[in-house]
Structure to design on (290 residues):
């Protein structure tokens, strides 16, 4: 177990619409929300990029200039903070994501470790969106790993997993020489067509990950996800939440800021008898450059 718990805050995400939810979009908004999360104990900020035009904040962006502006604003607001950059894309064109990592050199970036049928069904038994494939073929993973190596960026292997095979694939990436650095797993749980947000799954996932690897859980859902956060804290995992993943605390309270969610994670860590890692300590734990 890691005595210190590193908290990551996922500030916005790609699906949350700022017209419907209080998610940050502009550099100023991202910095304000990052500061609230930072003050509550988060050392790492996971960022997604949105188009900056007033009516297009619900749409993703891969503009390097937008990434640079957002990262600079967050770093100025949160001294010593670690940036974790999104790379998630569907389809054959992911050059923009590669460019953002190459040009901005974030300390950490997501590296989706396998493919997933990304599905959700509404209460009326129709698709919430047209069924789609979140495709992450080995060749695509290799492209990301190659760029991250050049940028000095540590990959965080995202395991959505419609089965536990994606977790096992990460070990194969290192076994075959695709990647040779420190391993970080992010078990993404709660996607409707992926792993459920079930605390009882964690011992199985931990049995299958590389023994020397760090791990955390991304829990997607409402108030029901908080027992999973607590179990992750109890088992020595690092913690993540944010407006990308949920809008609710364990008692059903709807939050208005990322800071409230980070406060909830910090409470989970303390109930497990663990302290919260500072940014300096988080860099030491993950081997992030200073």
């Amino acid at each position: 177990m890691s005595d210190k718990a590193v908290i990551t805050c996922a500030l916005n995400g790609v699906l949350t619409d700022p017209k419907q939810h209080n998610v940050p979009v502009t550099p100023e908004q991202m910095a304000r929300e990052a500061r609230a999360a930072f003050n509550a104990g988060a050392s790492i900020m996971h960022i997604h990029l949105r188009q900056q035009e007033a009516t297009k904040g619900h749409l993703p962006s891969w503009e390097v200039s937008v990434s640079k502006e957002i990262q600079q604003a967050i770093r100025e607001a949160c001294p010593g903070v670690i940036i974790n950059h999104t790379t998630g894309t569907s389809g054959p064109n992911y050059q923009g994501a590669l460019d953002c990592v190459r040009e901005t050199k974030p300390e950490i970036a997501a590296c989706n470790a396998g493919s997933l049928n990304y599905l959700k069904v509404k209460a009326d038994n129709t698709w919430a969106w047209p069924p789609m494939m979140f495709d992450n073929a080995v060749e695509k993973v290799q492209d990301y790993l190659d760029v991250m190596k050049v940028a000095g960026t540590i990959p965080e292997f995202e395991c959505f997993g419609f089965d536990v095979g994606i977790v096992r694939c990460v070990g194969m990436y290192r076994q075959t020489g695709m990647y040779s650095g420190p391993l970080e797993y992010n078990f993404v749980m709660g996607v409707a067509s992926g792993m459920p947000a079930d605390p009882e799954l964690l011992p199985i996932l931990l049995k299958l990950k590389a023994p020397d690897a760090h791990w955390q859980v991304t829990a997607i859902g409402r108030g029901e996800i908080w027992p999973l956060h607590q179990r992750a804290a109890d088992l020595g995992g690092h913690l993540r939440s944010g407006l990308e993943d949920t809008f609710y605390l364990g008692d059903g309270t709807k939050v208005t800021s990322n800071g409230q969610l980070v406060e909830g994670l910090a409470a989970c860590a303390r109930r497990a008898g663990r302290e919260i890692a500072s940014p300096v300590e988080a860099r030491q734990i993950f081997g992030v450059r200073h």
Notes: Residues 27-40 form the longest helix (14 residues). Residues 6 and 277 are 5 Å apart (CA to CA). The chain has a mean pLDDT of 95.
